[in-house]
Amino acid sequence: MKxxxxxxxxxxxxxxxxxxxxxxxxxxxxxxxxxxxxxxPSTLSPDGEWAVISKHNNNNPLVNxxxxxxxxxxxxxxxxxxxxxxxxxxxxxxVVGNIKTDLVIFSLSQNDSLIVTDVKKFDTSKDLNLxxxxxxxxxxxxxxxxxxxxxxxxxxxxxxxxxxxxSPDSNKIVAxxxxxxxxxIDLKKFTFTxxxxxxxxxxxxxxxxxxxxxxxxxxxxxxxxDLTSYKIKQIEIKESKVIENxxxxxxxxxxxxxxxxxxxxxxxxxxxxxxxxxxxxxSLVTSNSKIKYKKIYKAFVYHKDKLIELERDIDKEYLxxxxxGYLLSYNNFKDIDFKSYFPPIEYSLYDIEKKKNIxxxxxxxxxxxxPSKDGKHLLYPANYTKNKWEIxxxxxxxxxxxxxxxxxxxxxxxxxSNDSKKVLYASNGNLYTYTINNKKIKKLTDFNLKExxxxxxxxxxxxxxxxxxxxxxxxxxxxxTLQDKKSTLYVYNKQKLESVYSTNKLLSLSKTANRTFxxxxxxxxxxxxxxxxxxTILSIQNNKTTTIIKSDINKxxxxxxxxxxxxxxxxxxxKLHGYLFYPKNYNPQKKYPMVVQIYDLRLNVPYNExxxxxxxxxxxxxxxxxxxxxxxxxxxxxxxxxEEGPGLSAVDCVTSAVNKALEIEPSIxxxxxGLIGHSFGGYKTSAISVLSDMFKASVAGAGAHDLIGGLMFxxxxxxxxxxxxxxxGAQSNLKVKFSEDPEKYYxxxxxxxxxxxxxxxxxxxxxxxxxxxxxxxxxxFMALKREQKPVIALFYKNIDHGISSINPxxxxxxxxxxxxxxxxxxxKKKEIKWIKDGLDYNKYSLSPD
Length: 849
Fold this sequence. Notes:
The protein is mainly beta. It contains 10 helices and 56 strands. Residues about 1-30 have low confidence and may be disordered.
């Protein structure tokens, strides 16, 4: 049924706009101006014609705008209540998604739409311009889409279909009927072939690497189907027991690896009433107190119609890397000592035919092994620190290596070229290629990046498999650099590097998992912003830069913003950075309170991102612009951990930062300083609050206040392991066990030094927080209450380690209370009832049941 949706959308948006404006009039909202928003590029059509931009508004975190903008004409369509379309934005202005329960096909170029009702599931193929969907009558319909919607054609309809399986490239499909018949559909001829009928429900379904075959597990039978010849090979699992943890994967040549386990008949007698943790326990997992059996572990490779069983037990596991004839063998538990979240694991190359390890590769974490697309080489880090990488020639077993210095690179992992001839990698602020045949390293860029400059994120034509991603280096790829406080967008194409766009503001190539570039890489979206410049979305089209959409925020709301960047040194002469944001209505003749925000060397929210002063933008209670709008100086300061420990070094860093800020700006009121931090910043905030008298008030969120009992000697149900690595290494980095230097732990423990504080402390956490266990906050509150120090603790019932924008009530509440806390203590606004009553030890209150 064809309908024009324009009137419906305009009416709906008008109603919501009225509601939104009304919501702004509520007293609890910070600002009534509805123009505060953030623009984010969400995705781009394959032909680069239509960009999707999300507009996150001030008035309601759940009601945001979605714009479809033509990159050439700048025509803009507001389709705010259109959803589930990100994988179905096609070429020629076609997009498929949902409005409420209806499926809607839009032709953006024709300004027309088509509604399809009663749809249970849908997908599209971008390459074939096809729409697949199952309706409530269990019909599978395959429609060829046309930008003139009247020319849409249903190419095939099948009845009595329960579900379908779409290949990863969305160009092949297999349907499952209500009678458990698998049906392969030819999407070129729109014919179908019944493949097989299973005798039970399907437990596993997987496409092979080339997407021309499938494997189906039903009951205890594995059916391997060649979708070209329709030949079926069957493997029967002969175990009589119920199998668990079944895993299967294909090799590049469509050989098959699978593994599983099952319970033996041997009962572990005490398992239903006793959980024994022994001194040599490698896997510390809490028991469910049910009867347990010793397990049998199995692994197989299916090669040339033969099933090869491999030796497998608790100490011997395999990783399929896709390369035929080989697996990686490893012991998951051998080197576990709980000194790190991801322990080093030694991987060896396992020859399937010889059934033995033939070569030790490296001890690394998180399985970072990447085969070349032709299966002839394997790329992997040679050590745990990943500053050296190796390339293994699978035939000769020769190893080649190159070193990486990642100090000036971000988010760039060594990557195979699509033709398997090269590896692209970043090191020491430049891009390089390693050529396999001649073993030569070529430097692609010639940047002279300094300590704080970076090269960031490569975007290009990527081909992803289940084993690795491959970059077509014969096509253009893009990346950004930050050099001498200048951001530049570069394109590398045809062996040449070209600067496309340069600015003193922050450039970002993508803030989403969706593709923001066209298939031919001639159109690409990127964002430009700064602390005093809202995000502008731009595009490159045939090497020309154009603006897609600018922010419509009233410029008077932010044009006054000012920031001073400076460096300071701690007592060890370590150079660190501070960013001082000025208050609204700044008058150099006045004094203003200042709030300092800390985390570590990496500020968890980039200092030069534009922020809006609303609660949906302050998920940890901190928001630069919210504080500066309320006439606070805001100092964001880098900190790091020295040999003295995380707490003492934080005191030194922050003291130096504040002193330097006071030199720069005499208008800062030294008697009214506040401090705020979350997570590791929350720990540091509480440590500084008890080890220093510099701050009158502080806000510490989700911090490890009990450094010894709440971190060093705690078992984490979140990580399913002891947390002592969090104290000895990780961010806290005390570098020693408690027994080796207990005084160091005492000196850096906020809990054990709580009695010293002169700072009014607001603590908060989520009652579901298992990352930094919520009882750290409870203990800190108890320590401060025992000494009758000024403290209030907030425990958010349904929140874990951080509040997100999907928690608007909690987000709003925390933002209000943080601002109240600083206003009460630093601005002497003493009539804030929840604080005034909550700090008075001469009165009493009852906690709610």
